[in-house]
Amino acid sequence: MLQETLPHAFTIDAAKAAFPPSLVHTTPLDLDPHLSEMYDARVYLKREDRQPIRSYKIRGAFHRMAQMHPDERGKGVVCASAGNHAQGVAASAKFFETGSTIFMPRTTPLQKVEATRRAGDSATNIELVGDEFNEAFEASRHFAEAHGREFIHPFDHPDTIAGQGTVAAEIMQQLSMERDTLHAVLFPVGGGGLGSGLATYFRERAPHTQLVGIEPTEAAAMHHSLQAGHPVELKNLSTFVDGAAVRKPGDLTFETFRRLGVDVRTIPENQICVAMHDLYQIQGINVEPAAALSIAGLKVIAEEIRGKTVVCILSGANFDASRWTQVIDRAERFRMRKVQLRVTLPDRAGALDEFLELLGKDINLTSIHYDEEDAGEGMPSTVSLTVRSHHEGRIAQFLKEARAVGYNIELNGKH
What we know:
Elements: H1 2-5, H2 9-17, E1 29-31, H3 33-39, E2 42-47, H4 57-66, H5 70-74, E3 77-80, H6 84-95, E4 100-104, H7 110-119, E5 124-128, H8 133-147, E6 150-151, H9 158-177, E7 184-188, H10 193-205, E8 210-216, H11 221-228, H12 251-259, E9 263-267, H13 269-283, H14 293-297, H15 302-305, E10 309-314, H16 324-334, E11 338-345, H17 351-357, E12 364-371, E13 381-388, H18 394-404, E14 408-411
Parallel strand pairs: 2-10, 3-4, 3-6, 4-5, 7-8, 7-10, 8-9
Antiparallel strand pairs: 1-2, 11-13, 11-14, 12-13
Helix pairs in contact: 2-9, 4-6, 4-9, 6-7, 9-10, 10-12, 13-16
């Protein structure tokens, strides 16, 4: 049944050939010297962040709408999205000169809402509903049914999957020109549309390619579903990686991942922040959290790709600049360049000064709160402080030294 539902590689090739160049670009496949040296592999970056709407989602949205009958399409289309699919639908609807009603969660970054308005035209209507994708999704389905309009699913439809699969077709063509052999592809996983398209194409044209989907640990719907053997709905969901924050994978995409042997690994959000930070600082590439999943995932399969060729898909670059402060803060905490400490001090004069002297010149004190309320005569008191260092490993060394001389220190609430 799955084989009858999924597109074939030739369908994906045909979809790619039908893309209007003004709307869907053939994006670069760049060999990254820094990551290649770091992982002792040939690491290529598939730059879907370079699409006109700065995301691969334009591929699936356009192909889905291109397969509709003109009369059906002319009634207008409906979709639900946390941002990138919304832009793809808005831009495609504009191309086909039809209307679009787009439901987005109220928590969608303002940058993505405004980008969706720019991608569309006066016939684009945006509705902000609910606090997460699933709420917007339900509202959009009810609206589409009530108004007799076609719903453009962001991932769980064969046409959408075929459109996303064109990324795989391009990768194979571009690597062939480089005379390189592909061993592994890393890509972000949300609802599973991109992974399903990749798996459909590679399993037919390059069956030995290792396919590794990367999900945020805090929003790992596909990972938990594969473990359970059926699609499961997450009770708790973090929306920090908004492009991958899906509470439940699609039935078709789940079955595709399961049947075609897509490997799904998870990465904590703070590690994703590190990948975003390093991409910008070292390579000058500014991406959204979901796009950094593939880069963060390199650490997970580092031993498996040594000496091999791997492609990381940078899925999008629609990121609200106001969120960079949070990203940097989380990256620094993950690397222990910035930590919050709670230190128990002996109740004697000069105890705090003695502790601060241990910090040294290469650890900066950024905040301090001295709590004497619980300290009675002869009892220890506590001090809470935040410290930062530009030197990786320096704070860890300091903690070891301070504990060795008898200080009781809790790090971010943990001993």
